[in-house]
Amino acid sequence: MKDIEDVCATCGGDGYIENAGSRNRCPTCRGTGRRVVAEGFHDVTKTKASHHLRSDPKGAAAPKPTWPTTFEGAQLAGEVRDSRTLTQDAKDRLIREIMEHETSHGQCTQTFLKKVRKQVRPKA
Ligand SMILES: [Zn+2]
After folding, report:
1. Residues in Cβ contact with 85 at an 8 Å cutoff, skipping those fewer than 6 apart
2. Among 34, 69, 90, 124, which residue has the least CB neighbours within 10 Å?
3. CA of 9 to the centre of ligand 1 (A)
4. Is 57 within a domain?
């Protein structure tokens, strides 16, 4: 069965166009009757996509942490997330800072909690 995708749309796969009684070579496919695409374009895309899906088991098995693991950290991150004054970028950055702080200190220090809360509630 011939794949319709591979047939030249200009000549319908003949490779030639009838024009006022004369038979001319199709300018689109240059007489091949095949659709002209960038070489290997479709195949490369398909291969890449499936390759990417199959070769990324790490991402599924060990997702990057997106939320603090300590009670104080999670509570603080919640305050950051619910803040009405911070931009989304600032929130993302602060929550990332909290997780990094946890990773390096093992917990959230009072100093750190105060520092972040000042940014969440600047005038409270
Ligand atoms: Zn053609």
Report:
1. 120, 121, 122
2. 124
3. 6
4. no
User: According to DSSP H, which parts of 20-124 are helical?
Assistant: 41-54, 57-61, 71-82, 88-105, 110-120
- pTM assigned to the model: 0.48
Number of domains in the chain: 2
Residue 23 inside a domain? The answer is yes
Ligand 1 centroid–CA 93 distance in Å is 55
* Structural domain for 103, as ranges: 71-120
